[in-house]
Amino acid sequence: MAVKGLNVKELSEIKRLLNLGLTNRKIARALKIHRNTINKYVEKIKSNASEDENKIPAASSHWSAQVDWENVRREFLSGVPLNIIYEELFELQKLSVQYPGFWKQAHKNINLSVATMVKIHRPGERAEIDYCDGIDILDPATGEVRRTHLFVGVLCHSRFAFAEFSMSQSSSDFLQSHVNMFEYFGGVPQSLAPDNLKSAVTKAHRYDPVINQAYTRMAEHYEIAVLPARVKSPTDKAIVERTIQIFQKYFFMKVRHRTFTSLLELNQCLREHLEILNNKVHRIFKRTRKEMYLEELKSLRSLPVETYKVAVYHKAVLSRDCHLMFDQNYYSSPHQHRGQSLDIWATAKTVEIFVNGDRVAVHARGKTVRKFITDSSHYPPAHQAFAEEDIQKIINQAAKVGVECLALVKGLLEGDLPLKHMRRCQGIVALSWKYSAVLLEGACKGANLFNNHNIQYLERVIKTRSGVKQNTDEQINRKNHNPHLRGLNNIH
Fold it and tell me: 457 with 447: CB under 8 angstroms?
C-alpha cells in the first residue's frame, strides 16, 4: 500500500489530512509532495477501505469475544497454568485457535503478571538454610556408591554463601553443619530460617511450629532465633533456594566427570568452588558477595568463646535393673528414677542423663554395641535389691526349672549388686520357654561345672545337645606308639 519514496510519518499525515476532508491538491501543497503521488495513495486507501467493509470479521475477534477473560485471570492467579486453561476451553469448543494465538490474546486482554515484593534484609539480620541431594561417593574398598546431601546456608543481606556435603540429614550432621557455617561466617546472624525437616522442626505449624530440642539447645548456645519457613512455601527462603540452583547448575556440572572416593575430598573440591562463587561479581548488585559480606560482618554477633559440642537428644525409660538403652548400649542411672522417662544428651564422647533438667548421670559413650556401662553407685543397697519382687520372681522361676538352674541364677544374684545380672538371669530362665526345662537344666549343669554363665554358651549347648552328658572323671586311654601325644600313657 505504501508508495515508494514516502516514509511512515508522511503516509500517516496524508491519511490524517484526507480524513479531515482536504482535497488531493491541498494535501500535496501542504506536504510539498507531487500531486500524482498523492492521487495514487488516495486511490489505494479508498480501495482498501471498500474491501474492509465487505470483509467478514476475522475468526480471532469472534472467539476472543466469547472468552470470559476475567475468569481466566482469576484461574491463572490461583495457580492454574495458562496452557491448562487453554485446553479446558478448547475441549468446551470455546476456542478455534492454537495455543500461541490464545497466549497473545490473554496477554493483550488481561494483565497476567503477579505482583511481587522485594524483601530488604538488614546486615546481620537473617540467614537461610536448606538441603538438596548431593553427589554420590564411591567406596574404593567395596565398590559401594554412597549418597550425600548438600547443606547450604546464605547470609540474606550480602548473599554470602556456605556449603558442605554430609552423609545424612540426621540431627548430628545437621547441627555440625551449623557449627561449621558459623565458623565460616565468622559471626552469628540474628535469626535462622530453616526448612521443616525433622532435625529442625518436631511438629510443623503455620504460626507456632515445635522446634527440635537439640536444635533449640544449639540456638540457645549461639543466642539466635529460629524462624522456620512455612510448609511448601519456598518463597519464604527464596535466597537460599536460588543459591542451591546456582550450585546445581555450576558446581555439579563442573565436576560431573569426576569420581569422588571420600567425603573429605568432595568437600575440599566444593570449598574451592565456593571461594570462586563468593568472589564473583553479582549480576544485580554489581559487587562480589565477599565485598558485601565484609561490610555485613560488622553487624554479625561474635561467636561464643566455647565452641558448641553437637549433642543428640533422646528419651528412654529407666528399667528395673537401673539401665536405659541408647544407641544399642545400656547406661545406668540412679535407681530412684526407675520407670521414669529420662532425657539423654549424647555427644561424640559422653552420654548425659537428665531428670527435669537436672543431670543425674554421665558416662563415656560406648564404642561398641550391646554393652552395659554401669556406675555401681546407681544401684540400691544389696539387701533392698534382693528383696524386690522381680528378683524373687526370677528365683522362683529358676527353681521350677531345676536345681542346677536355681544354683546358677542364685550365684549371679547373690553378689553385691544383684540387679547387675537381672537381665542375664531373665534371659537364662527364658530359654526354658524357648526350648524346654529339661534341656536348660542339663545346660546349667555344665555351666556351673565350667563356671560359664553366658546365655550364648547355654543356648549353644542346648542346640548341639553336647557337652552336658560327658563324664569328666573318665580317663582317656591313648596308644603308646604315638610319640606326638601327651598324657599318662605317653609319659616315659
Answer: yes
Those residues with Cβ within 8 angstroms of residue 40's Cβ, 6 or more apart along the chain or in another chain? 3
Secondary structure percentages of the chain, helix, strand, coil, to 5: 45, 15, 40
The yes-or-no verdict on residue 4 having pLDDT over 60 is no
For residue 285, which amino acid is it? F
**Which pLDDT score is estimated for 124?**
94
Residue 92, Cα to own-chain centre: how many angstroms? 45
Identify the pLDDT of residue 373: 92
Query: Which set of grid coordinates corresponds to residue 163?
Result: 556449603
From CA 103, how far away is CA 267, in angstroms rounded?
A: 46
Q: What is the CA radius of gyration of the chain?
A: 42
Q: Between these two residues, 322 and 105, which has the higher pLDDT value?
A: 322
CA-to-CA distance for 441 and 439, rounded, in angstroms?
5
- Side-chain half-sphere exposure of 464, counting CA atoms within 13 A: 10
Alpha-carbon gap, residue 450 to 457, rounded angstroms: 11
Residue 288 pLDDT exceeds 90:
yes
Of 212, 138, 206, give the one whose Cα is nearest residue 178.
212
Beta carbons of 226 and 216 less than 8 angstroms apart: yes
CA torsion sign for 317, 322, 326, 328 is: negative
Residue 284 has pLDDT above 60, yes or no: yes
Do 37 and 3 meet the contact criterion of CB atoms below 8 Å apart?
yes
SS3 sequence, 89-107? HHHCCCCCCCHHHHHHHHH
H or E element, residue 214: helix 213-222
What pLDDT sits at residue 383? 60
For 325, the 3-state DSSP assignment is strand
| Residue in the structure block whose three cell numbers are 475468569 | 71
65 or 180, greater pLDDT: 180
What pLDDT was estimated at residue 381? Answer: 83
Hey, what's the cell of 416?
Answer: 553385691
Q: By three-state DSSP, how is residue 357 classified? A: coil
Are 409 and 444 contacting, i.e. CB atoms less than 8 angstroms apart?
no
The pLDDT of residue 46 is above 80: no
Who contacts 262 (Cβ-Cβ below 8 Å, separation ≥6)? 137
DSSP letter for 151, please: E
**Separation between Cα atoms, residue 108 and residue 438, nearest integer Å:** 93
**DSSP bridge partners of 162:** 153
Residue 301: closest CA among 189, 191, 226, 217? 189
Residue of 10, 15, 89, 77 whose CA lies nearest to 46 = 15
Instruction: For the chain, give the percent of residues with pLDDT over 70.
Output: 88
Query: How far apart are the C-alpha atoms of 223 and 432, rounded to whole Å?
Result: 57
- Asked if residue 362 lies in contact with residue 353, where contact means CB atoms within 8 angstroms, the answer is yes
